[in-house]
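User: These chains co-purify. Model them together.
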Amino acid sequence: MIELVDIAWRVGEFSLSGLNCVVPEGKYSVLMGNTGCGKSTVVELICGLREPLSGQLLIGGEEVTLKPPGERNIGYVPQDGALFPTMTVSEQIGFGLKIRRRAEAEIEKAVSTLARELGLEKLLNRMPDGLSGGERQRVALGRALAVQPKVLLLDEPLSALDEDARDEMVDLLKRIQIEHSVTVLHVTHSSREAEQLADVVLRMEGGKIRVVE
Amino acid sequence: MAYESRMVTSILRALLGIVTRRNSRFWSLLVFVTAGYLLFIISMLWATATYSSPSDYFEALNSREIQHSVFLSLLTCSLTALLSLLLAVPIGYLLARKDFRGKALVESALDIPIVLPPMVIGLCLLILFQTRLGGLVDSVIPFTYTVFGVVLAQLVIGAAFAIRTMRGTFTQLSQRPEDVAMTLGCSRGSAMWRVALPAAGKGMVAAGSVAWARSLGEFGPVMVFAGSTRMKTEVLATTVWLELSVGELEAAVAVSLLMVFFAMVVLVAMRLAGERW
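Assistant: Joint model of the two components:
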């Protein structure tokens, strides 16, 4: 579960205060809202990439407001995947475990399991430049899942994909969420994505987040 | 001779190709300006290269003093390029990634060495080392009129160019991958080290090369701050001046051509590095 309690923040001219929201445990939640309403900033606040001016942030009941991003037990997939430009697919997926100084054998096992699950076995030695949009997103997803996060934060993960790749990713995301029993917060402005994926739809409007269904 | 005329012909052909494909007065005018400028540069180099015979040049380059100057130039330029990178990477990263009050002022201040007349930089350095603090530093590491002084004089300008290049490099690299690295357990510093720096390899080669090439031609600050003592602080740029001042035009031309050669090597290396990364 992710809880935002009376969160306030300011980015340049843009500021918000009194933001409250609960993303339920083990569900696939979709956060919708118009462009520029601050959806992505909410994700960055949960990730710890931005500091709130005030308020509390809890993940799995534990307060993480002041914790660095790496200690929040989260997985983050930005819009374009944001793959590391100089690493192979295999290195990308194993990155989080390498940072955590896990044994080489454990990293290899995790990479091959995730590669199988995400259909990346044949791409493990490829660099990001040679990957399609859908492949990039699957690598980014594998990289986030490798550290077994409690929460998966997806910031418009399907917006750069063509129709076929999008449908494929929708199936994959739903399957991954169930198999890994992970709490997902998926940010989008597409109501179609919300229909296809959401257990819970949240809408951000006028600086507030409310549950739609 | 045949090689040079082939090069000029192929450049002209390439330019004329633009005109025939896009046969408009506008493109013709632009091609005319470009061709005129290129012709001017090539004529300059051609006239210098053919001023005397190759045997005269080799004889001039055989002198012990000039060979020492070549060695010292290569050594100091390489050291300067390395030190410039050590400054340019953190400063460039800070400017590209962080917004802070007075940033525009800091950026302008970092460009001061680029806009100041080189001779003035030399004079400023000399005066700085006359102050109490400068004198103290000088008593530990002697800079004034030494090889260290040559490096410091080159560094002032070389680093300014390297900082500009590194800032541009980091600005072009998206910050997102570093953000993701942080969510995976990296600190900001480790994300820079593991994600941004490997991706900035091409920029670092470019920044180092620019600093190297600028240092090679640095004359004013080196002359004023480190002097031009033969076999001690004489570098190629000062050699040209020293040889000219005693009327040894062949030697001055020979050293100039050597500098042109080094500059070309750096240019080609930058191109190759750019394609590799």
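The two ends of chain A are 17 Å apart (CA to CA).
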